[in-house]
Amino acid sequence: MFKDRLSEDILHNLENNLKNNFGNECKELEDVIMNETLNEIQQLLEYHGKSLSDFPVMPIPTISSYSKISRLILDETHQDCKLLSEKVANNTSKMNYDQKNVFDSIVEAVEKGNSKVFFIDGPGGTGKTFIYNTLLAHIRSKGDIALAVASSGIAALLLDGGRTAHSRFKIPLVVNEISTCNISVQSDLANLIRLCKLVVWDEAPMCNKYVFEAVERCFKDIMKTDCSGAENILFGGKVVVLGGDFRQILPVIPHGTRTDIVASTLKRSYIWSNVDVRHLTINMRAILGSDESKENQQHFMNYLLRIGDGIESIFKFTTDYDELIEIKNVMILKATNFDDFVNEFYPNISNINIEV
Question: pTM of the prediction?
Answer without folding.
Answer: 0.75
